[in-house]
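The pair is quoted verbatim as follows:
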Amino acid sequence: MSSDMSYDTLIIGQVCRDHNTDYDGAVFQMPGGAVLYSGHAAAAIGHRVAVLPKGAGSDYTSVFGGQPNITVYPVYSPSDTEMTSVFFTADRERRDSRCAGMIEPYRPEEIPAIDARLYHLAGLVKGDIGDDMIAACASRGDTAVDVQCLLRCREPDGSLVFRDWAEKREFLPLIRFLKTDAAEASVLTGLTDRAAAAKTLYDWGAKEIMITHNSEVLVYDGETVYTQPLRPRSLAGRTGRGDTCFSAYITERLTRDIPSALLFAAALVSLKMETPGPFTGTRRDAENYINEFYN
């Protein structure tokens, strides 16, 4: 673990207790959450990572302890986030997910007194991370936001529905990197064309927009629409796809231009999708994947 308090990225989000039923009826439980997939991806390729998980005394050593590039700053919540998901297809694109429990919201005063080049907000459900956290992080450095935690709302019966973010016009200008998937982009903008949606989000203030789709990843910076295809040989590890891709991309953007960072992230997540769980490979593994399947 790092001895000083300077990091490439601080990822703010809870580790989730996932209870899953696969398309073939197999039942399995495992830790989940954007912070898990994002943290491991950035750390595996050599970035210095801090994570800020929140929960009721979870054993974070078992979740993050195998990765020396990750430092954990846990905060307490009397409750954990628990998700139950039933997958209907082998590619896990169709599923029914319900939220059985939620953490207490993150508060700005819980952000540790560290220096980070990126502040990556990676909650799971509306209410985890409020607009006050976006403002607090933007006052400290470049802010990256996965919009899922601003759109995915928990109903009283635990079901999850997506609703527009009412305050988007006010807070999008505070965001350096914004990540949505194709469906979330449509909820935000009303547009199904991904390039048009990205341009609208840029016009509303976000500086660099990533929109993920099961076929490709798109990035727009106000001038050029960049895309890279996803080329996995298997979908066994499809869960965590977007989190892995976004985290790899934004940390690579600290030192690389958009085309090279996007190519690297697309190849890395394609490789990750072949194996369940977070990415545990290396930078060389992703580079080899580029040479084999992209060049």
